[in-house]
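Page 37, top half.
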Amino acid sequence: MLTNGTELNMKNKVDQKGMSGKIFFLIFLFLFSGSNASYGREVSRMELEKVTDLIMSPGCNYVYTLTNCPSPQADQMRELVKDRIKKGESTEEILSYFEDVYGLKILAQPSKKGFYFIAWWFPYFLIL
């Protein structure tokens, strides 16, 4: 027969083992819960330029695309594009973000929707 002291010691050991398992699980969960497999991957230069060729650089007065602009602001914007690609965002999502922040002038190509589509193609229809 176990005495109350021995019984309490055994119960404390069982509780400590259960607690250390819970702590290990929480640490594991904390370390790996927010990880995304695509976030850690490298972005190729070609993949980055595919997107940065479509964005005009405010640092170069919207004359050059992000790919060709040597300004520090363009460097920061290229890093932002790279981070968004790493997170798995599509080209359209990235362009939409920059359009929301800077307006339509940030796009190297006009929007293919509504008035902008008509305004872009109307001169060609006049020639025909």
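Page 37, bottom half:
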Amino acid sequence: TAVGREPIVRVELVDTVNNALVAMRYLKVKWVKEAGERELSHAFADSIYYCSNYTGRIGTQEMNEDIYDKA
């Protein structure tokens, strides 16, 4: 089984209109038998998830302090 393994996966964000690589990152995934749930206190504005009128942005510091440190 995959439980207990921690593979590193490559994730790519591709602009399919211009056929261009926008960003590429490597993520480490830990497979566990049971996943726990953890509530994050950070409130995301709905507009962040819409591409047509994107104006919001989560910066590195905000992501590190509000998401990664609490996840």
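Margin note: The CA atoms of residues 15 and 51 lie 12 Å apart.
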